[in-house]
Specification:
By secondary structure, this protein is mostly helical. The protein has ten helices and no strands. Helix 3 packs parallel to helix 5.
Length: 222
């Protein structure tokens, strides 16, 4: 299926533009948010990660996370992080490449998990949310480091992952076109504007930094 998408790039760009419009309708964002987890799991399992499907699909959900959060398509807010971790772990388990494990990355993850014991959560707040919100990203980075450690990634595979990461951008732009109100009715100020970001408040720099970190870890571990 990955090859079919890559051989019909314009078609799937059009499909994602349609996803952007469908995101304005009720229930459909929830369906999309569920399918971007279920379908990749099946693809990784059936393909046995022969062509780095885990890497490519992890890149896709990284790009789709902002769009799905904007449309409230995830059941859990941090599902994007769960998805990346799940896909890469499946890639390690089912892949043809004999994974080379690095002790420093495993030790790094163990230290993060050990930190949970010393975490103090203010009264009234969810322990699960507090831990996942703060540790989900670092643990995901550790899993990515383990996955990419000494793994040969071809230039074309890296470019394919970038293409998959950009696909949800077309959905986001279409969604914003239909949902953004008239700019004359908006009062602009120095803070994040919920009206133009569809109530998605996370700064774009956070996702730029996340993408930068993934690229650095990928090239360093290769």
């Amino acid at each position: 299926m990955i090859e079919k998408i890559l051989n019909n790039k314009l078609l799937f760009i059009g499909i994602h533009i349609a996803f952007g419009f469908l995101g304005t309708l009720p229930l459909l964002p929830k369906l999309y948010g569920s399918l971007v987890i279920i379908i990749p799991v099946l693809l990784i399992y059936l393909s046995q990660n022969k062509n780095e499907e885990a890497f490519i699909l992890a890149a896709y959900i990284t790009g789709a996370e902002v769009f799905i959060r904007m449309t409230k398509g995830f059941i859990l807010y941090e599902t994007g992080k769960y998805g990346v971790i799940l896909f890469l772990v499946l890639g390690i388990l089912f892949g043809k490449y004999k994974q080379v494990f690095s002790l420093q990355y495993i030790f790094y993850i163990l230290l993060l998990l050990l930190g949970i014991v010393f975490t103090q959560v203010p009264g009234g707040e969810s322990i699960r949310k507090a831990i996942i919100f703060n540790l989900g990203g670092p643990i995901g980075l550790g899993i990515a480091a383990i996955y990419f450690y000494k793994r040969p990634i071809k230039k074309q595979e890296f470019l394919n992952a970038l293409f998959f990461m950009l696909l949800p951008l077309f959905s986001m732009l279409t969604y914003m076109y239909f949902k953004t109100p008239d700019l004359k009715e908006i009062v602009f100020h120095s803070e994040a504007n919920f009206a133009t970001s569809r109530r998605f408040w996370t700064k774009p720099s956070c996702y730029c930094n996340r993408f930068r970190n993934v690229c650095i870890v990928s090239f360093y571990c290769i």
